[in-house]
Amino acid sequence: MSYSPLLVRLIDALCCMPGVGRKSAQRIAFHLLERDREGARVLGDALGQAAQGIGHCKRCRMFTEAEFCSFCAADGRDRALLCVVESPADVMAVEDATGYRGLYFVLMGHLSPLDGIGPDELGADQLEALLNENETKELIIATNPTVEGDATAHYLAGLAARHGVQASRIAHGVPLGGELEYVDGGTLSHAFFGRRVVD
Amino acid sequence: MSYSPLLVRLIDALCCMPGVGRKSAQRIAFHLLERDREGARVLGDALGQAAQGIGHCKRCRMFTEAEFCSFCAADGRDRALLCVVESPADVMAVEDATGYRGLYFVLMGHLSPLDGIGPDELGADQLEALLNENETKELIIATNPTVEGDATAHYLAGLAARHGVQASRIAHGVPLGGELEYVDGGTLSHAFFGRRVVD
Questions:
Q1: pTM
Q2: Residue A170 needs a FRET pair 20 to 30 A away by CA distance; which of A144, B25, B144, B157 works?
Q3: Which positions in chain B touch A110 (Cβ < 8 Å)?
Q4: Chain B: residue whose CA lies nearest to A55
Q5: What is the torsion angle, in degrees rounded to the nearest 10, for the CA atoms of residue B23, residue B29, residue B30 and residue B31?
Q6: CATH number of this structure's domain A5-53, picked from the four choices 1.10.1040.10, 1.20.120.530, 1.10.8.420, 1.10.10.60
């Protein structure tokens, strides 16, 4: 004996989401069926349309259903600056926090040879094509401060050098509001040796 | 600047799931778009069909797209026994663990006057109609061992008494495999005063 076929199918399908196991899938299914059918219907539509319609920006690889994303299509952004990030969420983080108004390039991942992710999978061709347009003056590398992110940054710096574009990397160090006592050793060491003259 | 309209819509819609905030919704959306479009499509269909098709069993209120759920429709189940539970997940828990082969009644909640949930919302009418059919000999009350579950159990016991049906409640006590030292006081006290003669 088990749930009805449609319910079994719904619970199975919900398990495709990251971090959702069978118990969570059940809980979500019951919640939607019992308390929010309209939400379930809207979500179902949104998923179908997104899976169908959303592709990548031809220029920067950002998710978009248009040919170019809203950043690349916008007038008045500084086309001399190109910020390379790992994921679309990083674009939003940089955009919201920094006041940066240049363009972006989204790798959709980081170099990870063991997983078969090399430069081709990260859109290196597209990035080179962009650099060949000679608009870019500075490549701002904002990959994550992880081993893979560092390797990716190293690769990107080499790419920029080959195209005669200046590369920079966002600063790593002690985060604001933290206490030195509780900052991990690697970060503290990095911050210490990366100290800057106070002027 | 923000994500493309379809992506914004998808992230908003994902937030309707319990336990999913904006960050999780983003993560889920990116995962599905980047790695599992087929899963997204299947989930979208499943949600739409479930929201459209799944209703409640006319007899026991279990979720089903048919008129009667597979339990009520099955031949060979013991119609003299009726086990009352709070949720569809509880039906599966009892079914899988106990070898019980009677029928079920799913309250879809528990008495909670502050939330406006009284006997009517829990399908008391349907339960009374079932008891009036005179098939039921024992009403097994398997509501959760919580304050609301206890109140609901008390109400159900009264209902059974009015219909001349014997009511029983699943035993509460120390769970198997636990150590007394770590069992909470309430449970231990309950187990102690509910001790049974060893024969």
A1: 0.84
A2: B25
A3: none
A4: B33
A5: 110
A6: 1.10.8.420
